[in-house]
Amino acid sequence: MKTIICIPTYNEAENIKKMLPAISDLKLKNVDILIIDDNSPDGTSAAVKRLNSKFKIQNSKFKIFVLDRKKKEGLGKAYVAGFKWALKKGYDRIISMDADFSHNPKYLPKMIKKSKDYDVVVGSRYVKGGKIVGWEWYRYVNSYGANFFTRLLLRLKPKDATAGFKCYSRKFLKSLDLDKIIAGGYAFQVEMINLAQEGGFSITEFPITFVDRQVGESKISGELSRSAKIIFKLALRKKTYRQFIKFGIVGLLGTIIDLGVYNLLVFKFNFNIYTSRIISFTLAATANYILNRIWTFRSKEKKIAKQYIQFFFISIIGLGLNLIIMKSLQNIVSGIEEELLRINIPVVIAITIVLFWNFLANRYWTFKKH
């Protein structure tokens, strides 16, 4: 099993001079290093090449390679270039880590050992035993908050979804079209975990102590907003979120049909309000069922009558919930002076809650694929 450690660098000359000897001292078997340098102005690439000459004399089995890139394009692009290089050279395990000692090389033997049984091994700050040293409180809050909402939005199982210290199997990386990875910056770490989980690859975490860099400048400035955009793009790729958006659009069309038919029957044909309400609701629910079956969930279920009854039953429960929620909120909002707000706040809250109920109930019951 051949392992390569991929270390992206940009102005890391001082750190890399210490990192390479530290990894060399571990005397790891069948482990090489690839430095992916984005044309560092401080001469990082040249510093690595000078060190490499010394290592070749001292230890011929310890190989250091340098992949020189023309410009700085972000962490994700650098890793993609490194992964392509590693796969082409036939490496079985590919490790990603930082050059600034925030990822201590002492964890490499444990990571490599665990990689024999898992496709992705994560050096985690947020599992039991993991911790962060050297951060101001606000950086910890930012990191933990970003990690929490990323996991929630993408439904990721690993505790440290934003971790950069990982080991990937060749099998996992070969399964990807690396050119289609959309994250160029730090969101790359999240996208890789997301791809591994969606692909059904095995993932494990072990605790590490993450230490803030002592030398050089952090490159995370401005990454939060860019990464947030990528996370939302990844979320929209998920089938469940796409279905929810479609379900909401269908629901809006159903509401238009409901109100249109109701007003037409009452004011044009002089039906009583209760009969009009039953007819308009039934027609709207039927239209919603047809559109959701064909467009939202693309159902192939042959028992259409049974499916329709299930959908209609859920719609009736949703209507009941809507009325109950609106009624229960009337007393809460009674103190609001503005009439428009007092009337509409309960309606908006009720519609939102019932929308989630209707979607989840239909997705996991009416249109569930057996």
Q: How many helical stretches?
A: 12
Name the CATH superfamily assignment of the largest domain.
Answer: Spore Coat Polysaccharide Biosynthesis Protein SpsA, Chain A
In terms of per-residue confidence, which ranges show pLDDT below 50 for 5 or more consecutive residues?
none
Count of strand segments? 9
Q: Which outline best applies?
A: elongated
CATH architecture of the largest domain: Alpha-Beta Complex
Structural write-up:
The protein folds into two domains: 3-236, Spore Coat Polysaccharide Biosynthesis Protein SpsA, Chain A (Alpha-Beta Complex), CATH 3.90.550; 240-366. 57% of the residues lie in helices and 12% in strands. The chain has helices spanning 13-24, 44-58, 75-88, 108-114, 137-154, 170-174, 187-198, 223-237, 239-268, 273-296, 304-333, 339-366, and strands at 3-9, 31-37, 64-68, 93-96, 120-124, 131-133, 166-169, 203-207, 209-211. A seven-stranded mixed β-sheet has the order 3-2-1-4-7-5-8, with helices on both faces. The chain has a two-stranded parallel sheet with strand order 6-9. Helix 1 links the parallel strand 1 (3-9) and strand 2 (31-37). Helix 10 (273-296) crosses helix 11. The longest helix has 30 residues, at 239-268. It is elongated and about 95 Å long. It starts with a strand and ends with a helix.
Key words describing this protein structure:
alpha/beta, 57% helix, seven-stranded mixed beta sheet, single chain, 12 helices, 370 residues, 9 strands, Spore Coat Polysaccharide Biosynthesis Protein SpsA, Chain A, two-stranded parallel ribbon
